[in-house]
Amino acid sequence: NLARWGNDNHIVTQSDPKYFSKLPALFDIILVDAPCSGEGLIRKEPGALGEWSEKNVNLCASRQKRILADVLPALADNGILIYSTCTYSEAENEENMEWLLNHADITPMVFDLQDSFGVSRSEPLKAGHRFYPHRVDGEGFFIAAFRNNRKTTSPKRNKYQPKRNFQSSLPGNEDKVWLKDVDRYIFLDRDEHRTALPRAIYDDYLKISKALRITYSGLYMGKVYHGKLKPSPELALSRYVSNEVPRLELSIESSLDYLAHANLSLPSEIKPGYHLITHAGYGLGWLHVLRTGQVRNKFPSAWRILNR
């Protein structure tokens, strides 16, 4: 989803919360959308009722405390912690708020809300916000926010440097073919795959890579074959793709044909190479014209439109 919005300033990880404690005071905002007993989804999914039990509620409440305790060290001074669940259980909501206030130097954040919003306040300090399905346009939900009061002392520098499984480099001539403003990036190479990472988040990338497993970051440009880039679908959607890349503007109907992998009517004079398919100026994907005249739709099959 991040790639489809055309952005590149993100780092996606997949790790147990306990590893976040190795990143002291790094994050200005942490959102803990915690696994819960799901009571707020029963109206939408009646089958969820069969999975509910008091034992599961207590298990979730314990797991939520563990997650909160694990990530709190990573919250920056004066940072904001947001906690949410899709359940009504006080054990998983208000009691966890009480537990936080007793175990961390944080202050609940109270917001001015209009009555027309239909949101109910709850203790402590009326800082918990409950969303009931009969009062709001949505399912059951709970959310609360806290500000960190803790002052972090500078941690000792860790001399251990883990082995990197990538090589970093400055922009090359091939990068300038595909991207505008290439100087805003550091380029990462791993097994012939090339990623453009904004310089602004490179230091954070190095810190995070020491503690967490990174699954996606920056702008994945594609795979390099014999010094030439085979552009990725993400690159076609990027807001930073070069204006010099050959483009083929299509009508709405032809664009839908492209997205559905249907036959396309193309100009006879189209040249070999990769062409960026656009509609209203927005990139959709790549069309690869071979020297033999064959045309290959490079829009991912898993993304294609099935019903129009």
Question: Can you tag this structure with a few keywords?
Answer:
single chain; 308 residues; alpha+beta; six-stranded mixed sheet; five-stranded antiparallel sheet; globular
Based on helices, strands and strand pairing, what is the structural class? alpha+beta
Secondary-structure element string? EEHEHEEEEEHEEHEEEHEHEEE
Global outline? globular
Assembly status: single chain
Mean pLDDT reading: 92
Helical residue percent band:
10-25%
Describe the structure.
β9 and β10 (193-198) form a beta hairpin. The mean pLDDT is 92. The chain starts with 10 loop residues before the first strand and ends in an 11-residue tail after the last strand. The protein has helices at 54-71, 94-103, 173-178, 202-211, 233-237, 252-259; strands at residues 11-13, 27-33, 75-85, 106-108, 120-122, 128-131, 141-148, 167-169, 185-190, 193-198, 214-217, 219-225, 228-231, 247-249, 273-279, 282-289, 295-297. 19% of the residues lie in helices and 29% in strands. The strands form 4 sheets. Strands 2, 3, 4, 5, 6 and 7 form a 6-stranded mixed β-sheet that branches.
Layout: helices, strands, pairs:
Blueprint: E1 11-13, E2 27-33, H1 54-71, E3 75-85, H2 94-103, E4 106-108, E5 120-122, E6 128-131, E7 141-148, E8 167-169, H3 173-178, E9 185-190, E10 193-198, H4 202-211, E11 214-217, E12 219-225, E13 228-231, H5 233-237, E14 247-249, H6 252-259, E15 273-279, E16 282-289, E17 295-297
Parallel strand pairs: 2-3, 14-15
Antiparallel strand pairs: 1-11, 3-7, 4-7, 5-6, 6-7, 8-9, 9-10, 10-12, 12-13, 15-16, 16-17
